[in-house]
Structures are given as C-alpha cells and as structure tokens.
Amino acid sequence: SLYTEPYDVENEVNGFYTYDRRVLKMTESRVRAVNQKVLAIANGTAVGPDDLVSLRVTTSGYTDRYLRHRDSLARTDVPGSDLDRLDSTFFTRPGLADASCLSFESRNFPGLFLRHANSRIGIAANPVAADATFCAREGSGGTALESYNVRGSFIRHFDANVYLARSGGPNPWDTPNSFAADTTWAISVAVWRSGAELPLDQARSFRVTTPGFTDRYLRHRDGLARTDVVTSGSDGLLKADSTFVIRRGLADPTCYSLESRNFPGSYLRHADFRVRLNAGENSDLFRRDATFCAQPGEGGVRLESVNELGTNIRHYQEEVWVASNGGAHTYDNPASYNQDVSWAVSSPWAP
C-alpha cells in the first residue's frame, strides 16, 4: 500500500486514517521500518532470515528470469508453471557456517540448500556448511552473494546456468564483461508466496493453538469472523459455520482463499482490519482482501494478508482481525502474538 496523506478523501484511500478519521490504518513507525528495510534491500545489505524469497536476475535484457533449481543444479528461467515458481522460491536461513550470513533452503525440497561444488551452484542435502553459506554484499542496485569460504567469488548467472565466479578468473563464467550486473540479484517477494501447503478444494476447520483456548475454532457468525468452542456435541449450524473450503487465492494462485462451507460463494475477507464473511465481488479489492498466504507458524500455519503487508489473521478476545505484531491497535498487542496467529488445520466439522 502507498500512504501519501493523513486521511483518506472522497476518491482516494491512501491516507494513514480512514475518511471518517476513526481507523488508523498504518503507524508512522511501521512506515519508517518498511522504508528502512526497502532501502537496505536496495543497497543489498539486508536480507531477512527466514524470509520466503526469489532471486531475480538484474542484468539488462534478462530481468524476467529467476534463479531456480532443476535436476539438482541451479539455472535461471522465466517461471511459467507452478513447478517453475516453486523451484524458484527459497527460505533464507541464518548461514549454516556463520549466522551473520545466509543460506538458502529450497521451498519445495525442505532440507536441501543452495551450495557450490566444482564452481557450479546446485542444491544438496546436508551440504558442507561453508559451501552453502553466502554473505550479502552491496551489488549494482541489488544484492551480491559472496561465498563464505571462497572469498572474492560470487553467485553468477552465465548462459542460463549459475556458477560461483571470480571476476577475471580462468573459467568462461569468470569473464569481467557485465560481472557486476550478473552477480547482482534482486532478492524479492517470492514468486510462490506461500511457505506452507494447504489442501486445495478440500473442507477444513481451523483450530486456535494459543494455550488455554485450543477448544476454539475459527467460524463466521452474522457476517463476522470470530472463535467459539466447537465439540462433537455442537449443533450443526456451529459446525458448518466453522468449516471452510480451501480455494486457490482469488488474487494470487500461490496463496489461498477460504470459502464458507454453508454459504458457497462467500469468502473470509478483511475490511477495516476486521475479518468478515462477504459474498464474492467482482473487484480487485475484494479479491486481494480475501487472499491469504499460508506460512509456517508455531504449531500450525499463519494466514498472511496478501495486501495488508505484515499482518496475519489473529484471534483476539473472541474476535478475528488481520493484525500486525506491535502495531497501533489493541488487537496488535505483541503478547502471545505468534500463538494467536497460528492455526491448526483440522478435519472439517462439516465434511
């Protein structure tokens, strides 16, 4: 989102507050933190550990290509299929050999990391830690990834393959021509945005994982999302209200939308940060509001808003919101945040 004025106006929704001055949508501290992170990433000096990312080529004429693995070797391709996007997505981890650097774990092959061997970059299980550790350096408008144990050598794309290269070295991929551009990567939002899997087109119920409240489930009532205790003895309406069919994300097919089991065509969406059930609308705003990316949580999955960045579906005093950790609202309270945004994906109460 882009915020350019204090309040929304008649035909613009880019204010910090809503038109009626009642809802603070974004705090100054969050805007500052996001801008500082953007600047650091642009300089190539900051990549967050445990982020889900893709590495895009920055060389002119090839900026639609991403680093991906295929047959255990790294190369660059233009992602077209779901498999291409998954192969092009990695978790950034604290460096296996040095936590101040980075290692890149495959999104679709957990436990396999990018590593160098005989100058080629590939993925492998249980790699030599130093071979799988790369340090973020300031590149030419992005991030250069220097080998931890072969200093002065960087991850470089060359003729669609990916190598560990040293400018002016003896190999063809060491050529100094466009070396800076070829070793600079735009570490971006992942082309496959969900870091956890949900079963498509199947009904599921979502159980609270916060200690003391694990008998409560996400449900809708009177058009609003909330949590209630559900048991085998609960009535059929409560069980149906607590069941959702998992669909491909209306706004992003690598994320998810939750369709009501008993009101087909109605989806959970957020509006003014409150999660509610609305009938489907043919608008980009509705599709974005109703799309959530599944990420690993604490004992479950987080459901991350695709358009309110930094927020997740959270239960708070029985109500359900999209909330940030430590934001301006009462439901952004950092106490038990990680547990409150983690949901156990359970068998459906109403199959």
TrEMBL record:
InterPro entries: AbfB_ABD, AbfB_ABD_sf
Native source organism of the sequence: Lentzea aerocolonigenes (Lechevalieria aerocolonigenes)
Gene3D superfamilies in UniProt: 2.80.10.50
One of the GO BP terms on file: L-arabinose metabolic process
Source organism, top-level taxon: Bacteria
A Pfam family that the UniProt record links to this protein: AbfB
SUPFAM superfamilies (UniProt xref): AbfB domain
CDD domains: beta-trefoil_ABD_ABFB
Protein name as catalogued: Beta-galactosidase
Domain Alpha-L-arabinofuranosidase B arabinose-binding, chain residue ranges per copy: 55-187, 207-345
